[in-house]
Amino acid sequence: MTFAKLPEQCETMIEVREGVDQVDRELVALLVRRFGYMDAAARIKADRGAVRDEARKAEVLDNAARAAEAAGLDPQRIRSVWNELVEQSIAHELDRWDDLRA
């Protein structure tokens, strides 16, 4: 497996695209792990109503926004991305919760 150049080392669009593609593969691998935790939550939670936890969602979004800002990214843009990630995670967990109890 070859590793793409770091962004600051890229000199061509081919190198940029190779880097983006590598990051996307890494992100998918992390999402597989994150959704695995949603599978675990679906297994552990006894009540379907406990799947949607707005206080926890707010905490996750705040954590992501703070981490983004500390890293020099726009916290609102990252909050928007994380909002979609959390909503998809909730939908996944609800599906798994239903599947486990069908």
What is Rg? 17 Å
Distance between the termini: 42 Å
Number of domains: 1
The CATH homologous superfamily corresponds to: Chorismate mutase
Q: DSSP helix count? A: 3
CATH class: Mainly Alpha
How would you briefly describe this protein structure?
The protein is mainly α and 102 residues long.
Structure description:
The chain is mainly alpha-helical. The protein has one domain (12-101): Chorismate mutase (Chorismate Mutase Domain, subunit A). 75% of the residues lie in helices and 0% in strands. It is built from three helices and no strands. It has helices spanning 13-44, 54-70, 75-101. Helix 1 packs across helix 3 and helix 2 (54-70) runs antiparallel to helix 3 (75-101). The longest helix is centred in the first third of the chain and has 32 residues, at 13-44. The radius of gyration is 17 Å and the shape is flat. The mean pLDDT is 97.
Features of the shown structure:
mainly alpha, Chorismate Mutase Domain, subunit A, 102 residues, 75% helix
Please write out the topology:
Elements: H1 13-44, H2 54-70, H3 75-101
